Amino acid sequence: MSALLDREELSTDVLPAAVRLLGCTVEADTPDGTVAVRLVEVEAYRGADDPASHSYRGRTPRNSVMFGPAGHLYVYFVYGMHFCANVSCLDEGEAGAVLMRAGEVVSDLTVARTRRPTARRDTDLARGPARLASLLGLDREHNGVDVTSAASPVRVLSGPPVPASRIRTGPRVGVAGARELPWRFWVDGAPEVSAYRPGRVRPRTR
DNA sequence: GCGTTGATATTCT
DNA sequence: GAATATCAACGCC
After folding, report:
1. Domains identified in chain A, total number
2. Is residue A201 part of a domain?
3. Contact between the CB of A174 and strand C at under 7 Å
4. Is A197 within the bounds of a domain?
């Protein structure tokens, strides 16, 4: 049993916030029941100085949660069919968020399998940001939810802390710009970590 | 096991 | 019109 994560732990810069979120548990109430996932892979995104970030070119209706206070969900729709979920960082006015990329299901495995019946192995249930969001039932309606409140349908519980020696870093997945920034963090050896795919322009096939 | 491809909303140009 | 913080299904080893 763990306590809710403090908002202050996320109002720091995005890198310490990303490291802090590793090992934390995301608990979500879905139509099928409650699912909890321990985060093993995250990516940090910031504002004006991060070309890979949605907030790089200023505030829009979609990314406005990134500019708001820390500890809220930024859920966005990509590729016309998937949702991805971030936790906002930094204080009001400063854009930042941590993308939740992968996690290990800690409960309830039966509910989780019901939600994603096509997953071949348990470690595939929340392997990748869109899979994780769909497993937790996150969509547009959860944009802006406060994950530090016990009354929310989605909550982040703190720790157990991941030893620094088990944390690895590297370039973010699928981003074309700012590839020199090692802003992806994962737990060494976790089988749920998504495969690295360099952010290249896919060759046009036509 | 691996590479290719289709689905297609939102944003920016 | 083009790119994108993706996944799953398919063909082919």
Report:
1. 1
2. no
3. yes
4. no
Q: What is the pLDDT of residue A206?
A: 35
Say yes or no: Cβ of A181 under 7 A from any atom of strand C.
Answer: no
**The CATH number of the domain where A54 resides is what?**
3.10.300.10
CA of A127 to C1' of B1 (A): 19
CA A37 to chain centre: 11
Quick check: A48 CB within 7 A of strand B? no
What pTM did the predictor assign? 0.92
pLDDT at site A120: 86
Asked whether residue A143, judged by its CB, lies under 7 Å from any atom of the DNA or RNA strand C, the reply is no
A129 Cβ nearer than 7 Å to chain C strand: yes
Amino acid A151 CA to nucleotide B4 C1' distance, rounded Å: 45
Q: For A72-140, give the secondary structure using H, E and C.
A: EEEEEEECCCEEEEEEECCCCCCCEEEEEEEEEEEECHHHHHHHCCCCCCHHHCCECHHHHHHHCCCCH
CA A15, CA A8: separation in Å to the nearest integer? 14
- Average pLDDT estimate for A67-84: 93
Range of the domain at A32: 7-187
Chain C bases near protein CB atoms (7 A cut-off): 3-9
A79 touches strand C (CB under 7 A): yes
Residue A51 domain-assigned (yes or no): yes
